[in-house]
Amino acid sequence: MKRGNSMLSHSQVVGIVWLIVVSVVIVAVVIFSPEGAEEAAASDTSSVSNRVKLEKMEDSVYRSRGVGKRQWRGTDGTARYPSKRGEVRRDTGSYYAVTTPSPTRQPLTVELNDADTTTLQLLHGIGPVFARRIVRYRERLGGFTSTEQLLEVYGFTPQLLDHIRPYLRLDADSLRKLNVNTMSLKQLIKHPYMDYYFARDLVRLRSRGVTFASPDDLRIIPSCNDTLLTRLLPYLDFGQ
């Protein structure tokens, strides 16, 4: 090559080529060396570790909401319930108790007037607090005649009722009733629907020899009104 035209000499070209070859070899050695492989493996391990951490964080979020991850992500958008009593995981830090999905995914049905607190907690959204409140209020009423009465339980919402309503059964034949001809004033006024003045006037009329044989007979009580009578009627007994 001619130096006057600023062209590289043969030896310079060879030197540059060898420099490139050596650089390529060095890079290949670094990449494929045991240390490089370990670094790549460490990168993969780190990726797996991060994924596990994310899954654990996600699980904790589901637990904080009182539901199981599989249950919360049900493809049909509804909760799944166990077929056997007792398959329940309770979150003692909240109002919620979450059930473990059964293999058959059959919906649970609860008889509202017969279920104890443990059985009630199998309903998604009903934890130990609500279960105790439902049972206590049921005892005061003498039993439920309608699922709508759950809204009279402190803290119960229409949204929660709509959620569990498909899983409730109601046997109104098991009601504990008030005998208007024999029960004392103290016993009568324990009922949530009983008005004190109505019960007082009823007992006074009985003391004068009045016997009540039908709901219409109660209309002679001065404090009686249609609203009160309609609410009380399922719980009244007119036996002698």
CATH class division of one domain:
Mainly Alpha
CATH topology of one domain: DNA polymerase, domain 1
**Gross geometry:** rod-shaped
Order of helices and strands: HHHEEEHHHEEHHHE
Beta strand %: 5-15%
Strand order of the largest sheet: 1-2
Mean pLDDT comes to: 76
Helix content: 40-55%
What radius of gyration results from the CA coordinates? 38 Å
Q: What is the helix tally?
A: 9
Please give the alpha-carbon distance between the first and last residues: 132 Å
Low-confidence stretches: 64-106
Number of strands: 6
Can you walk through the features of this model?
The strands form three sheets. This protein has a two-stranded antiparallel ribbon with strand order 1-2. The protein has a two-stranded parallel sheet with strand order 3-4. Among the domains are: 82-174, DNA polymerase, domain 1, CATH 1.10.150; 178-237, DNA polymerase, domain 1 (Orthogonal Bundle). The protein is mainly alpha-helical and 240 residues long. It has helices at residues 10-32, 34-64, 69-72, 117-120, 128-141, 158-164, 185-188, 196-207, 226-232; strands spanning 88-90, 97-99, 110-111, 168-169, 178-179, 236-237. Helix content is 44%, strand content 6%. A hairpin with a 6-residue loop joins strand 1 (88-90) and strand 2 (97-99). It is built from nine helices and six strands. It is rod-shaped and about 135 Å long.
Provide a compact summary of the structure:
By secondary structure, the protein is mostly helical.
